[in-house]
Design goal:
Blueprint (H helix, E strand, L loop, with lengths): L6 E5 L10 E4 L17 E2 L7 H7 L6 H13 L2 H13 L2 E5 L8 H14 L3 H6 L3
Parallel strand pairs: 1-4, 2-3, 2-4
Helix pairs in contact: 1-2
Length: 133
C-alpha cells in the first residue's frame, strides 16, 4: 500500500511552496494582520478550529496543552462530517494546514494534524468510516 502524502503545518504568512499541495487556514478567526489576498489558501476551515471557549481557556498556555488536546479531540469527534473530507484528501495528496498564532508547537493546526494522523493510522479506518459518510 502506498504511503499517503501527508499533512504539513505552516504559519499563514509563510509563502506557499510548490509542494504544499492544498492549503487550508484552520483558525476560527481570520488573522488580523493579513489581508485575504495576501494568503494563498484553497479553503478556510473555521468550523474545524477549537471552540472559542476552549481556545480562551487554553490561551497560549503550553502547560495546558494536554488538557487542550483532550477537549479539542472530543470536539472533533463530534464534527466527523467536517474533518472526514480533509482526512480523505490527505490520503491522496499533500495537505498544508495554516495557522496564525506565534507558537509553532502549540496551535490548532498542530493539534488537528495530530488528530488526523491518529485517525488515518488506526487499523481499518477507511473501511469503518466509509459507510458513515
Amino acid at each position: 500500500m502506498r504511503r499517503p502524502p501527508g499533512i504539513r503545518v505552516k504559519r499563514a504568512e509563510d509563502p506557499p511552496a510548490a509542494d504544499d499541495g492544498i492549503r487550508f487556514l484552520v483558525d476560527r478567526n481570520w488573522p488580523r494582520h493579513l489581508r485575504q489576498e495576501a494568503i494563498s489558501v484553497d479553503g478556510w476551515l473555521r468550523d474545524l478550529a477549537p471552540s472559542a471557549a476552549l481556545w480562551r481557556r487554553f490561551k497560549d498556555r503550553p502547560d495546558r496543552w494536554g488538557e487542550f488536546l483532550t477537549r479539542y479531540f472530543a470536539e472533533l469527534d463530534a464534527k466527523r462530517r467536517l474533518w472526514w473530507p480533509l482526512a480523505q484528501a490527505a490520503r491522496k495528496e499533500r495537505v498544508t494546514l495554516l495557522y496564525s498564532t506565534r507558537d509553532p508547537l502549540h496551535n490548532c493546526a498542530v493539534a488537528l494534524r495530530q488528530y488526523l494522523f491518529a485517525k488515518l493510522s488506526s487499523p481499518g479506518f477507511l473501511y469503518r468510516n466509509s459507510a458513515k459518510n
